[in-house]
Amino acid sequence: MSATQSTTASAATAPDPARWKGWIPVIGLEVHCQLRTRTKLFCGCEYRFGAEPNTRTCAVCTAQPGALPVLNREALAYAIRAGLALGADIAPWSKFDRKNYFYCDLPKGYQISQFDRPFCTGGGITLESGHRIRLTRIHLEEDAGKAIHDRGAHTLVDLNRAGVPLIESVTEADVRSPEEAHEYLERLKEILLHAGVSDCDMEKGSLRVDVNVSIHRPGEGWRKRVELKNLNSFRNVAAAIEHEIARQIAIYESNDPSQQVVQETRLYDAQAGVTRSMRGKEEAHDYRYFPEPDLLPVQIDAAFLAEQREKLGESPTALRERYQRELGLSAYDAGVLTASPAVSRWFEECAKLCGSPKDAANWIQNEILRGLSNEQRPAAAIAELRVTPAGLAQLIGLVQKGTLNVPGGRQVLRAMLETGKDAAVLVRELGLEQVSDTGALEQWCREALVGKDKVIADVKAGKEKAIGALVGPVMKASKGAANPQVVTEILLRLVRELP
Amino acid sequence: MSNPDPSAERELVHKTAALARLSIGAAEEARLGAQFARILGAFHSLSELNVEGVPETTGGPRPASAAFGRLRADEPRASLERAAALVNAPQQDGEFYVVPKTVGGPS
Amino acid sequence: MSAAPLKGVVEGAAALRAGRTSALAEAERALERLERTRGALNAVLAVDRAGALERARALDARRARGEALGELAGVPFALKANMCLSGVEANCASRVLAGYAPPYTATFVQRLLDAGANPIAIANMDEFAMGSSGENSAYGTTKNPWDVARTPGGSSSGSAALVAAGVVPFALGSDTGGSVRQPAALTNLAGYKPTYGRISRYGLIAFASSLDQVSPFARSVADVELVTRVMSGHDERDTTSLPEPAFAAEPEPAALAGLRIGVPREYFPATLDAAVRARCEAALAELERGGARLVPVSLPHSEHAIATYYVVATAEASSNLARYDGVRYGPRRDGDGSLQSMYAATRAQGFGDEVKRRILLGTYVLSSGYYDAWYRRALKVRTLLLRDFERAFERCDIVAGPTSPTAAFKLGEKTDDPVAMYLSDVLTVPASLAGLPALSLPCGFLDAGSNRLPVGLQLIGPARADARVLALGRRYQQLSSFHTELSPLAREVAA
Lengths: 499, 107, 495
What we know:
The complex is a heterotrimer of chains A (499), B (107) and C (495).
Chain A: E1 24-34, H1 73-85, E2 89-90, E3 93-94, E4 97-100, E5 110-113, E6 120-121, E7 124-126, E8 132-142, E9 146-148, E10 154-158, E11 165-171, H2 178-195, E12 207-216, E13 226-231, H3 234-254, E14 264-269, E15 274-277, E16 290-291, E17 298-299, H4 302-312, H5 316-327, H6 331-337, H7 341-354, H8 357-372, H9 378-384, H10 389-401, H11 406-419, H12 423-429, H13 438-449, H14 453-460, H15 468-477, H16 484-497
Parallel strand pairs in A: 13-14
Antiparallel strand pairs in A: 1-11, 1-12, 2-6, 3-17, 4-5, 4-16, 6-8, 7-8, 8-11, 9-10, 12-13, 14-15
Chain B: H1 6-19, H2 26-42, H3 82-86, E1 97-100
Chain C: H1 9-17, H2 23-41, E1 44-47, H3 49-64, E2 76-80, H4 107-114, E3 118-123, H5 157-164, E4 170-175, H6 181-186, E5 190-193, E6 213-218, H7 221-231, E7 260-264, H8 274-289, E8 293-297, H9 305-320, H10 339-350, H11 353-366, H12 371-395, E9 398-402, H13 418-423, H14 429-434, E10 438-448, E11 451-460, H15 466-479, H16 488-494
Parallel strand pairs in C: 2-3, 2-4, 7-8, 7-9
Antiparallel strand pairs in C: 1-3, 4-6, 5-6, 5-10, 9-11, 10-11
Helix pairs in contact in C: 2-3, 9-11, 9-12
């Protein structure tokens, strides 16, 4: 975390000082994102989440003596793209350093990371309020393996994840509340998803958040900061910050000298809603960073940079503006449809094919995304649907032409999602083509009028709305295939024709 | 940098050994402490050189034309069979490397 | 005395291609010589008899079928115990890696295999290549075939001893600060450390990554050159390997006319052994008679080379050796039952004294509060040493001087004094720090009691001028015959 305090003038949006009894929280976020390369950062092992333990390793990532790292070009490309998407400065050349520490999930006894020349510096994200969270840096490093502690008397080590590329983005201590942390993370995730560099999936551990929290009184210097780990959702990040602020306030206000805020790492226990100290005694880290002699410095030349800029595409902010400006969507709809690049790509294709962005937006939001909302990963799931954007566009076309009514359309879409069949085929199979054969409709309408003297009288007395009570039975008789508007017209005509 | 006080040398060796994960007994500490001081003393001439503004040579020396690393295409290579990866491990269960129970993460 | 009974590399491969010998006969002969000298030398940690014989038979079968054979077809050789040949124990002469058989083969070993060379044994060494005498092996000290009471030099002690005893025509060592050149000088061999990056380090178990180079020993410069050439060329698995393919040999400069040989005054200090000085000066005079011009040059920062080297090398080593933690390979010690104490116990029991000293030193110079004063400063002085050479090479084509300040010293003579031991590298570490190609070759003998002990001359070239250094070495061996003299043990073996 940087020692420079945020001076961005956004006092108007700052949290109410009364909220924390006059204490001011100072919050910084460190986010690790796995890059979605096929192979690891320094070797050709293909990582897959959930693979059988220790089946995705080689001489390099298990630190066999004598093995050497070779940098994956795509990982570098993604790191640079992440930097560009976040408005960072890209260093013309960069290098790797070794971070030395001992742990069973770290095969070499050091992590290849970056110390004083990260690929990206600066950049940031401006929140809805206008307050900007500045980034200190983004660097590229390798992930550690996994130590499993909850199976039996020993710790088990799986090195499949060892060497997977990560970018670590570190903010300045510009975050002022749990809500700002939450919003920052949402925005960061959205940006990285759109840049196509990471799945940002907390469930799978491809996005991990550590938080630094301290509090202080107005006008005084910063106090001891506490690092929070084990935060497995954005909601938990916000909750953990809230709890940690409260814990620190309680300690400072207790006036009990036996209680101290110490610089330490605490784990958040989401169930108990508390943070717990990670170890009894905090050892001072001495990572002994030094330049990695097994890797040469990396040059980011103009051509490489241009290539990454080109591959980056539109930012979510630009997309949202364009959806409102060019496609006439509401700010809300534009927001929903740009939450992930998979959804926005899906939407754009469908909108183009059906010719009506608004219809496409409605169908996708109301039918597709609502259906997916139970799923954990809408971004991935929309790509896995059995309905394609072209399929939905065809269905929308049928509704636009009046071949199908809206409830019928919903029914067809459900069947499409289940079977993967074409809308046109399903309309026939389900017998949902709207009946425009007035002969059949007239017959059902006549039957519906039998014995409905009260309704007939009301309509004749000018209360045309009363006819609505008879539309339902006709629709039922047609098994939903009748066009309700046509049915209403026929019923009214028949009543008028009655003596 | 080198210290004439033998207890300070021992303390230095003690701290450094802990950082390097070498368990060293008291007798060894004293012996290594003395050697350590002698070695650092012999190297002391380094501190007398004027190195103001001299760039650092990190990594092996390279000709300018090959100063930057080559990159690897993101193409998979075969991983080791699990049995081949685990074969040299002092303790393993056929799936995992097995180590003493540890909680609390790296330090 | 002539070397006739012992075939060299070039000669042996030619004999095999011509059908005058078989790969099997060469392998069996080498294995037999190995067994005969084993007790006297303790130069071998493991023998791959089955593998060697199998490879030899396969090669003979290929020859019988009329298939093309590689440049090193059927030539037996030894690997240093820090080199990876899949399935063959590479324990770095350390208890911490006892029983470790790598699951992969080093690129340079593969290139030798592809050229038909046949590895028969794994040679003893100073533990993790840390040492200058071979006395730091966890598996006993290697003896010098010229005088078994003396050191063969180190750290590539076993590799040097095996070639000097006539067991194999060549062997691989690794040279980090002189670990091939110094033993070559002490055992009357050619030992060649190529330009840093000339040979891929993939599969060489690291001591100090920015300095380590695979380096061969043989009796003649032509032989080390052939072996070097086969191993050289870019390797996609080592980004620090030079980008160009294998280098081509240069013809030796027959007349030496116009060749400027720089003689740095710092390499002939007052403390230099008088006999070593005399032999080296005689060799330079011989080259001068051959037409070369001797140019006095200065490498003013040489006095700081030892300190710089030991700071840089131990810093890298402290990190490179962190992986020996008892999790993935090597024997484990339990400690008090916790993970961290398991590490500390495994490492304390597994590493020898010198390795521990260097891990401590390297950890110290990188640690918070000392980094700038030691490590960063050493990186800057390394630049000054590089510049020394750049300046010298403006005035000369090759720098020459002694390889080692003394001939082979007695075993046990320096074991209690790490600083004295470090100083034996004083003439070899500058070229290592500068990444330059450097050759040690025999230039005479001195008398030590009843024994004659070899003296080595060192030739250092500008970066990438490997072919030039080797060509001059070949030329010197046309003018001299010291390299054809065999150690007492080799004479016995060849008889």
